[in-house]
Amino acid sequence: MTIKYLFQISIGLYVIAGFSAVILSKWHKISNTASNILCMAASVFGIAASIDQLISAQGPVILWKINSSIPLMNFTMTVDNVSSFFILMLSILVFPVSLYSIGYLSHYYGKRNVGLFNTLYSVFILSMILVFTASNTIFFFIAWEIMSVVSYFLVVFESEVEENRRAGTLYIIMTHLGAALMLIGFMIMYSFTNSFALNSDSALIPEFYRNIIFLLLVIGFGTKAGVVPLHIWLPYAHPAAPSNVSALMSGIMIKTAVYGILRFIMIYLGVQNTWWGILILVIGISSALIGVVYAFVENNIKKLLAFSSIENIGIIFIGLGICFIAISTKNETVAALALLASLFHAFNHTIFKGSLFLGAGSIHFSTHTKDMDQLGGLIKKIPIAALFILGGSLSISALVPFNGFIGEWLILQSIFAGIQPGNAGINILFILTVTALALAGALAAGTFIKFFGITFLGLPRSSHASEAQPIPMVMNAASGMLVLLCLVIGIFPAPFIQLISHAAFEITGVSVAVNFKGSFLLTAFPLSVSGNVISPFSSLIIFLLSILAVLLIIRFIGGKYAEKKYGTWDCGFEGLNSRMQYTATGFSKPVKIVFRMLFRPSRDLKITGDDTYHPESMEYIMTTESIFEKYIYDPVLKFTERSSGVIRRKLQTGSIHLYLIYMFAAILAAMLYNRLF
Amino acid sequence: MENYLNLLSHLMLLSSFVLMANKRIRSYIKTFRMQSALIGTTAALIGFESFSSSGRMDVLVVSTVIIALKVIYIPNLLGSTLENIDLKVEKDFFLNIPILVLISCGIVVFSYFSISAVEGINTGIMNVQIVNSISMILMGILFMISRKNAIGQIVGFLVIENGLFVTAMFSTEGMPFIIDMGIFIDIITAVLIMGVMVFKINEKFESADTNKLKNLRG
Amino acid sequence: MAELFYVLLQIGIFVLISPLVSGVIKKVKAMTQKRKGAPVLQLYFDLTKLLKKQAVISDKASWIFKASPYVVFSTAIAASLLIPVTTFVVPGRFSGDIIMLVYLLALGRFFMTLSGLDTGSTFGGMGSSREVMISSLMEPSILVSVFTMGLIAKSTSVYDIMEMMQSGNVSLTHPVFIMIFLALLIITLAETSRIPVDDPATHLELTMVHEAMILEYSGRHLALMELGASIKQLVFITLIVNIFLPHDQLITYTGAMGIILSIAIYILKVVGFSVLMALAEVSTVKFRLFSVPNLAALSFMLSFLGFLQYFVFGR
Hints:
The complex is a heterotrimer.
Chain A: H1 2-23, H2 28-55, E1 61-66, E2 75-79, H3 81-104, H4 114-133, H5 137-155, H6 162-193, H7 207-225, H8 234-240, H9 243-253, H10 255-269, H11 274-297, H12 301-328, H13 332-367, H14 378-381, H15 383-396, H16 403-418, H17 424-456, H18 463-466, H19 473-491, H20 493-508, E3 527-529, E4 532-534, H21 536-558, E5 563-566, H22 584-594, H23 596-599, E6 602-608, E7 617-623, H24 627-650, H25 656-676
Antiparallel strand pairs in A: 1-2, 3-4, 6-7
Chain B: H1 2-21, H2 25-54, H3 58-83, H4 97-115, H5 128-146, H6 150-172, H7 177-205
Chain C: H1 2-32, H2 42-52, E1 55-58, H3 63-80, H4 98-118, H5 122-153, H6 158-166, H7 175-191, H8 210-213, H9 219-244, H10 255-282, H11 292-311
Helix pairs in contact in C: 1-9, 1-10, 2-9, 3-4, 3-9, 4-5, 5-6, 5-7, 5-11, 6-9, 7-9, 7-11, 9-10
């Protein structure tokens, strides 16, 4: 019973936060602080409630039930373990993001309607909670649409920038395209089961329609998740939003798609065909690879993070794909392990991508630019933010001892367990997945070396960077607590994995052997999966001990530490300047050349003056094209434009009366249909 | 009880016919006021019934809101908008009035033809109220199609809404309170916006003829 | 206690032997060029000398620059613990597997490339950029190779893989092992900045990769970077010689005698392999930077074919 109250208090507090933002909106600072503190309080209740629900063995909890006399309009909010896992992710992210907003939104004071922003923010969070708790498809769809529309408003919040409006338009079009397909899927479900409820009997749906529903839902949810090739909106929309919203969008909103796939495909439809899993796995592989390659060459810090989200959602899909394949080949242990790995990676991604987006927001707050080629040397200006972004970068690059590594390790272990003699095709696919994961992991590390190295190290490349403003303490604290959580999960993964395994257990019904054992120093807290063991904790201890030992040894051999400051080697020129160091573009050039089929780079060198060797001025322009936009979306767009031109001339004449006649004819036709068929 | 409801429903249909046969804009508004009053009475009847049988208050509240909104507020609003417009009588129709009335009769027949196949709404005997209210919706659209004046359009829209409301009321014995209230808020905004628009259109084109909106097409 | 002994033994051997490998390689290279060359123990002298010297730090550098040598060194140490030099000392419940090895080394590389960018020099960024490209392209073949070995042994722990190879249940000349061996050889050359990929002996800006990143280091920091790099090199060599040339099954002694004998044979194998590497190095030329993807592809194909041999075409 208490779980129910905790959830209700949390939701109630979000509602109050939304209203208080509007009511107090005249006093920007008070309204901002009040509503964000309320959101933080709400998220604390959300965390408590969802953890409580996960560890208690009880079944689904019904939060609210709205009955009405209209058929099909009974709305029920139900929380089971899967829902509470997603609410847990959401709440864990909302707490620091709200804390961050208190500082971050201060640059809107007096310029923009902060109250409106915070109301939208609360509604956005609430709509995601509704998505996670809706217990029939109609309710789910309504919540989904609220989420899409509110996030659209948040994306275009800084609407005076042309780029943001374009990003918003692209986003709303893509997301509605996906939603439309999803709705068709729901309608097909209804037409066979005569019920919108999620516990209706899916066995009534024939095999063929099941496949159709699967495809529709994968495309529909895939659009929200931003998987390749449906990703084109994501790298525009996520950077356009204010950074606290970007953190929520990348951290949790794209995972509503994962929730949808779990809820509607795995739990409701059930996995029967192996090709379902193969499709998901292939989508995952291509998203992971293409996402990370685009991230690597990107110079805009927030776009880079957005592309990296595509990569990570790809890794989550890889886990889901393995799970699907394992279910269809009746390999329950592997399925459970893969699902657990996938959910764990989703959980981790929420945390580290949240912290990185908050960090990127801090950089923007401090320097007013997102272009890496304008930055550099920030580690001396904003050292605390630098430290936390370094932590986030290490974590997302899957390096020991952060949580990203544990997620990748679990996915690799599930593939390891999944490769079994026989079934050659699937084995080949699995080893190719390993390849993709390895390449994506290494390139992700490279991406974040670039992100951190170019932005924070070296010399400032412009006045933006050299005149960086200090960052409010709350903003640093917010990203800091997420990074700390990354580290804690990385060192002591077992309790977190067990928490998540409650959610995975509800879906697969098999609990995997993930246990923590051992007690003394070197074996403390290892993680063991079917006999394979790692212990990040002991590695960390070895780390620290070896640093300590080496310091002592050096002291013994080399004596007291002495250092001399001197300029960097400047090749004998007079003084080093920032134009001599590698730029972000230059850093990613080798990879760009290696993957040139994805970019089709073209270069243009303009030399003015007669002498090639002593030109008056030189201009070097390097352009790349996005093959997805050019070869998939542009043709579709052109076709739509052409055909809509025809429709506009012939049917859309502008006369209200003609439109009314269309409506009239449509109603008459519907009534006739009703009578005759 | 059933007889009273049937009577009221017929009267409402009749008011739609009256509207259709009218060409003075001020009497459009009067007819709409009358039709709304009939609906308010119907809602009050159903409200008393449900209050006495199950103690539900909400339909009664809805009926007061209808009277306040549709009988008093909106017609007054439209009336004051009309003050600013020169044109008081509708002139050239797309179809002349006798043909429109004949088409309206056809609509009633068609509604009967169509509704008689719907299961679940009526048990055994045909529910004449539903037929009447569906006809009201369709006639509202027809009214909008046939009138060029902007106030006529608004009245047509409101008649469609009246029809929808009555349909819902007759088929469910009172919808959930929250939905009714939502619809009312919807209408009031729509009418306010349209009122302003009419004023602007009149100002811009020096007439409230919606057919001239064609020129807005890019 | 067994774990503590294992840890001390591993760290001791890796720290003490690893500079020898570089020495042997340099000596053999000099001999093939009819030079006398530096003494085999030269790197030991260099390291002690460097530790005593004053460090010169760029005034543009941040704390990352000073922290990196320690991180690089200690990740190499932590990685060395995952590859037992002998199966006579059981790692016990010391935990870590071959996947962790790959990601541990990546941590060291992460900091090394950052330190290249930290001083704002022209060369550091160049080295970092190239290192990122090369290591990214090599990563798939590393993981597929170790994965395949792990799949054959049904465990991702190196100790289990070594035991499997010693057990006699598998034929050491099976094509899968030859292919994975060749793949790992290419990986070792690339990861340890050896000749077809990088030239450890040059400081020419057109070619250097690893040297470019550590160009600004001096004193104790340089010593740690060098030692870390040579431990990493020994990690790869140990992985190859202990997996593909198992020797512990030949020793009939047990107890301390067995351990000593096993380690002696291990050192002989390492020295032998170093000679082989040196010979491989002198008989090839350095590749153009953008030919490195071809090398990576070759190594990936070898490991992938190895996998196919074993798991798809049957044993």
